[in-house]
Every structure is written in C-alpha cells, then in structure tokens.
Specification:
Strand order of the largest sheet: 2-1-6
Number of helices: 3
Oligomer: single chain
Order of helices and strands: EEHHEEEHE
Distance between the termini: 17 Å
C-alpha cells in the first residue's frame, strides 16, 4: 500500500508575515462509491451485489437516524460515529443556549485495525 502525496506551500495563520513553509499533503487516487463496495463485497461472500447494496444503503440510513437522535453509532471493529458541536464561549453557564452552537460535525473514531493500517502504509511522492 502506498499513499501518494504532493508538496504544498502554506503560510502560518498566526504570523502572516512569516515565510511560507512546505508541507506534504496526501492526494486521493480515485474514489470508491457504494456500488463498487457492494460489488467488491459480493465477490468476497455468498451475498449478491444487489443484496450488499441494499444492506449498505440501510446502514447509511440507520447511521443517519441514530446520529440524529444523539446516539453514538458503534460499528464494531470498524469504529464509532458521533455528532460533535462547536459553540461560542459565554461568561456564564446560563447564557449558553442552542443559539451559541455555531457548527456541528460528524466525528469518526476508527477501530484498532483501521488505526494499525496507518502504521503499515508507505508514502510515494506524486510525479
């Protein structure tokens, strides 16, 4: 496994007058959609591609529903999904209400096997 990267210049957001520094940035090498995942999974087990696709769509639907109820979705060895929020700081607890919430996002905490994949991957500079 090799992840491609390119080199990008970036300014220091805390010191815009400082000279740019160069950083490695991972670049995607294509993508895989639900159709392709269903096809790949169907080759690895006795379930048809259509059935795999239906299960993946149901998984997506149920993850969205459970996250919308404020639950942590635990997908076993794959990892966990949870909703996270960012809010404005207020001087007192009484001042904090839902109007202070500025952003929500989906948090993903990968499982052990996904995390260990990162230690096994190599990197290749893109031409």
């Amino acid at each position: 496994m090799a992840i491609k990267y390119k080199v990008l210049p970036r300014k220091n957001p805390q010191d815009l007058l400082a000279p740019e520094k160069f950083y490695a940035s991972a670049i995607a090498d294509g993508d895989v959609d639900l159709d392709r995942l269903a096809e790949l999974i169907s080759y690895q087990c006795t379930v048809t591609e259509t059935d795999c696709y239906a299960v993946l769509l149901a998984l997506e639907h149920n993850i969205i529903g459970e996250l919308g109820q404020g639950r942590i979705v635990k997908l076993g060895r794959l990892g966990n999904f949870q909703v996270g929020i960012s809010s404005e700081g207020k001087d007192t607890a009484a001042e904090v209400s839902s109007t202070a919430i500025r952003k929500s996002r989906i948090l993903f905490r990968p499982g052990k096997r996904l995390r260990s994949m990162l230690s096994e991957v190599s990197f290749k500079k893109a031409g």
